[in-house]
């Protein structure tokens, strides 16, 4: 190994170390930004190193360099514009889109590699990861695009039932496997590559189309893990350690989040991927649960409860994200905080449309992160809470989860019913994603304030202001 | 099996373990930025694009490489920028320590929210 190779090797090693440290710094809000910048810096070094290596190897023609430079310029410009303009509510779509293009790039690497060896042999050590990278990258590309389309409202958010989907899925998996083996056996024949490409893209569609809106956090995490693996496979194809390491790190991150999200929804990843139950939520039949009375309240009464409380815990849910009410809830929390009331936000892991989305929405609305409490902290706090204000959350507060024999039994929930009183802002008594009645709504200590999250919070803040202002 | 492949597989497995170890400690508050940062990190695929570009010959391969470069660059640059923007919004309670809290020159006006509400 000559000096140049050694130097670039160490440069790559340093990049890999920085990625790990960068991710490690994401452990706490005050170091996270530094961690991200460190990773970004390492990425710049990795790209420069790759350019230096390619230039020294000398295989890259001038035309290709120009094309690469142009492609990078266009892609970077598009990335910056999207990243700077996106609203925080649209973050899940953007993350999905970036995920899609990442998977797309991984698949294109495999494809380019396969086409350049046309008619010649390719050792199995390259062809095996090549087909894997191609297949996983294609699934991610089409799957993430569908997910982004659903989140953006371009594709119906409801689960799309594809007739005979399971059979189709099984057939495409077998077809993918068959073509993959075909290519590994005969890498000179690139027809197999194109067949595999088409089959894998179709499989991505089959995977994402039937998934309902509320399962999105799981799907986005899963696709993120897939892209990581696709990149690691691309790393095996081009024999590049930095790709392997970074891809594996991302694969691990995605897998962890997938597991956490699935657990928080009380569903197995397999069940979600196999197709959701129910629809995307909020449309179930209305009507008081089991005929028990529901205490209905108005903004003025709820305002009295809040204004004279000492400790308030706000439980924001999917409905708040959908209604774009994060600024209203933040304004209410700020006003109560100024009045000396102790306010915290109890955030369930699957609140919002991607892991941790609710925290970002509230952070954008200037809620300091010290006010965010996770499920465990919240549950030890509800007993001392005067008012728990539930905004647009349903299943994650349903005490039925603690009983056996319901659709959500065993699901980790926020024990809102332990608070001294509960105010629920919700449009109707409609069912949540799980499609069952929520016992919380008929609890004698619960008052239901029927309103859209945004309008309800605005009215509530107005009433609190007139009451104590 | 070649030594190269064995090394690559070893690195892959160990990196997965390191990833699990490092990332399982990230609090729920930071899950979105974490995912977005991880997303940006898989933009390292750009390195792969540059490497594989050396093999490209013929118009089809040129087109594939160019498209791959667009995709990868968008992934990596956009990913890091959006993560930074998101993390910039996570702030401490205002009352805690007013003086050293924000950076000396907070951008005079955060870019105004772009009015694409309707899309949602």
Give an overview of the whole structure.
The complex is a heterodimer of chains A (469) and B (120). By secondary structure, chain A is α/β, with parallel strands linked by helices. Chain A folds into 3 domains: 85 residues; 193 residues, no CATH class; 180 residues, Rossmann fold (3-Layer(aba) Sandwich). Helices cover 59% and strands 6% of the residues of chain A. Chain A is built from 16 helices and 6 strands. A 6-stranded parallel beta sheet of chain A has the order 3-2-1-4-5-6. In chain A, α14 links the parallel β2 and β3. In chain A, α4 packs antiparallel against α5 and α13 packs parallel to α16. With 120 residues, chain B is an all-alpha fold. Chain B has a domain of 44 residues. In chain B, α2 runs antiparallel to α4 and α3 packs antiparallel against α4. The longest helix of chain B is centred in the middle third of the chain and has 31 residues. Chain B is flat, with a radius of gyration of 20 Å. At the A-B interface, α1, α2, α3, α4 and α8 of A face α1, α2, α3 and α4 of B.
Write the layout of secondary structure elements.
The complex is a heterodimer of chains A (469) and B (120).
Chain A: H1 3-24, H2 29-57, H3 62-85, H4 91-116, H5 124-152, H6 165-185, H7 191-208, H8 216-237, H9 241-264, H10 269-273, H11 299-307, E1 311-316, H12 318-322, H13 326-338, E2 342-346, H14 357-364, E3 372-373, H15 375-379, E4 387-391, E5 421-426, E6 446-450, H16 453-468
Helix pairs in contact in A: 1-2, 1-9, 4-5, 4-8, 5-6, 5-7, 5-8, 6-7, 8-9, 11-16, 13-16
Chain B: H1 3-23, H2 31-41, H3 45-53, H4 59-89
Helix pairs in contact in B: 2-4, 3-4
